[in-house]
From TrEMBL:
Name of the molecule in the record: DUF2252 domain-containing protein
Domain of life (superkingdom): Bacteria
UniProt xrefs under InterPro entries: DUF2252 (IPR018721)
Length: 466
């Protein structure tokens, strides 16, 4: 259980201890927390009502956007799962853990992976959402990722046997690649990335490979800011403006706009100060022309998110996305502490620690109302997974890719030798994770049904279809 979690010194990375000794320490942990212990999910008798957790996590969000949040979550048990990171965090805190701590993604589900361009314009595959990043037990990320495949598989009408196989492949891929990383130096791990084009070539579906290669070609040619400018903005005299598309993109009311724009400029100035000096010089060539509220994602709906439009003196645009940074859903469930009081800085530093390459404009800021934000480019050659067209083998290939990416991310802040020692070379751990995933998929479905009932009873507001 999380209450028993101890980040003891012997479970931290010690460069003075050989890889073989660290591997043996991982093996020894099995006596305290057997690998088979991870297969069980039995909700405790006093388990908190999942609807109450949703209501708590909505506190402080923009009230008018909450019906959109619940509308998106009610679309399916899979959509519900994507917005229910806080519910699973509370549940994971009641499961056995190994006491091996590292930097977690925190909301590690299959839609938070994908392709994007590095600052050097290379397309890589990696985790791309870190709102909940926080130090904690490594297996929490892996369990949430494996469960997401089981739930998504059910959503796609695959059999329970297939869904279990998807989850198994997540854990098996994580095991195999973590063992590979355990043989590398720390510097080699830091240099490692997953080339998107090469990853696609590993797939077995020739038709889907051709589809993805076309997407990569399009992404590589995509001049994001200029095309977004043509699609999302217009000129209002000498000032560029973002087009309203209510209820998903909109400006503050006219009465508030002038004051809010002044506040936004102050927030933007603080953001610039968080960047390395070279990026400060770059962005000094641009001035803020406009900003608008933008509803994003599933779990983020209701937090203050939006886009800002910057323009150079010669008319070149840059779109930045800002997202409100709230306390991680993991924080109350772990004994570990963060040294970052600024939630935006927590996210940025966690992202830089886990990603092979991060957005060149990634930074943090805050307003004068004790709200924290982080900022990045709106889009940069992103290639998102398209679950709707995936066949069974495609899901297996994607599960392997996500397991690999998670192993790479964990290897940067964790101890690959100790993790590999604990997981071992057999299939026992993967079997345990796959069994847990099916059991928790059942729990998620039950929680989803409780949300549906809560909406029918009027406990949760819901928007008309949008």
């Amino acid at each position: 259980m999380a209450d028993d979690f101890k980040d003891t010194s012997e479970n931290r990375f010690d460069p003075a201890v050989s890889k073989a000794e660290r591997f043996d320490k991982g093996v020894a942990i099995r006596k305290i927390t057997p690998r088979s212990a991870h297969q069980d999910w039995i909700p405790r008798e006093n388990r908190e009502d999942p609807v109450e957790i949703l209501i708590k996590t909505s506190t402080g969000r923009i009230e008018s956007l909450l019906p959109i949040r619940y509308r998106r979550m009610i679309e399916s048990p899979f959509a519900f799962f994507r917005g229910a990171a806080a519910i699973m965090a509370a549940d994971l805190a009641q499961t056995p853990n190994t006491g091996i701590n590292l930097q977690l993604c925190g909301d590690c589900h299959l839609m938070n992976f994908g392709g994007f361009a590095t600052p050097e314009r290379k397309l890589v595959f990696d985790i791309n959402d870190f709102d909940e990043t926080f130090p904690g037990p490594w297996e929490w990320d892996l369990k949430r990722l494996a469960v997401s495949f089981a739930i998504a598989g059910r959503w796609r009408k695959f059999s329970n046997k297939s869904c279990k196989e998807f989850a198994w492949n997540v854990a098996d891929s994580y095991k195999r690649h973590m063992l590979d990383y355990s043989k590398l130096s720390a510097l080699q791990i830091w240099y490692a990335d997953i080339d998107l084009a090469e990853l696609i070539e590993l797939g077995q579906d020739e038709e889907l490979k051709e589809f993805h290669h076309k997407r990569i070609k399009k992404a590589a040619e995509y001049t994001a800011h200029e095309k977004e400018f043509a699609k999302m903005s217009y000129l209002d005299g000498v000032r560029a403006r973002i087009k309203d598309e209510p209820p998903l993109i909109y400006h503050p009311s006219e009465n508030e706009e002038d004051q809010i724009l002044k506040e936004a400029e102050l927030v933007h100035k603080r953001y610039i100060e968080s960047l390395p000096e070279d990026k400060q010089v770059l962005l000094s060539r641009y001035s803020m022309h406009d900003f608008a509220i933008k509803v994003v994602g599933v779990g983020s709906v209701g937090t203050l998110c939006g886009i800002t439009l910057l323009m150079s003196a010669t008319g070149e645009p840059i779109f930045l996305q800002f997202k409100e940074a709230r306390q991680s859903v993991l924080q109350q469930h772990v004994k570990t502490k963060t040294k970052y009081k600024h939630q935006g800085e927590r996210i940025v530093m966690g992202q830089k620690l886990m990603q092979s390459a991060s957005d060149m404009f990634l930074g943090w800021t805050n307003d004068d109302k004790d709200r924290f934000f982080y900022i990045r480019q709106l889009r940069d050659a992103k290639v998102k997974p398209v679950l709707e067209i995936m066949k069974e083998q495609n899901m297996i290939d994607y599960a392997k890719a996500c397991g690999w990416a998670l192993a790479r991310a964990h290897a940067r802040s964790g101890d690959p030798s100790m993790l590999s020692g604990y997981i071992g070379k057999s299939d026992e751990f993967a079997h345990a994770i796959s069994k847990f995933s099916i059991l928790y998929a059942d729990q998620n479905e039950s929680d989803y049904n409780k949300m549906v009932e809560a909406i029918k009873e009027g406990r949760l507001p819901i928007a008309a279809e949008i």
